[in-house]
Amino acid sequence: MNIQDSVLVIRPMEKEDMDAVVEINRECFTSDAWSKSAFEREFSLNYSHKYVLELNGSVIGYLIAWTVYDTATLMNFAVKKEYWGKGYGKKLLTYLIENFKDKVSAIHLDVRKSNMRAIRLYKSLGFKIISERPKYYSDGESAYQMVLELSTPSDSLKG
């Protein structure tokens, strides 16, 4: 099967997706993996936006973003390692950006300084490094703070 024969779906995360999401999270984040209860808690937060990426009916990725006022923060995002480098993560992030572009003025995220694959992905979508958070992660590694500035509907009225 090649990609054009595949069915790719991005949809809201459901509680039934939890086992697959937790498994992907543990595969991709060793020391900083979220617990199942942390994912379950997201369903009680009205500012939490949760999506999964399905390929042929199987969850292969997910993202969680929070919106507070006019800003979004990418809280958690991962794709199964076997699908890295195939454009699936970019499709999921592009979906988020398109969905949020008229709702927020910026999307923020933190990323490990050593995660060059993710940094390249974020930069390819227009994110810029704005600062460094020293010793941000539990193992002492620092993080880059990145931001994607978006125009809001009110910006288009100013012109």
TrEMBL record:
Keywords attached to this entry: Acyltransferase, Cytoplasm, Transferase
Keyword Cytoplasm assigned: yes
Record-linked InterPro entries: AcTrfase_RimI/Ard1, Acyl_CoA_acyltransferase, GNAT_dom, YpeA/RimI_acetyltransf
Residue ranges occupied by any N-acetyltransferase domain in the UniProt entry: 8-151
Keyword Cytoplasm (UniProt): yes
GO molecular function: N-acetyltransferase activity
Annotated SUPFAM superfamilies: Acyl-CoA N-acyltransferases (Nat) (SSF55729)
CDD domains in UniProt: NAT_SF
PANTHER family reported for this sequence: ACETYLTRANSFERASE, N-ACETYLTRANSFERASE DOMAIN-CONTAINING PROTEIN
UniProt family annotation: Belongs to the acetyltransferase family. RimI subfamily.
Protein name listed in UniProt: Ribosomal-protein-alanine acetyltransferase
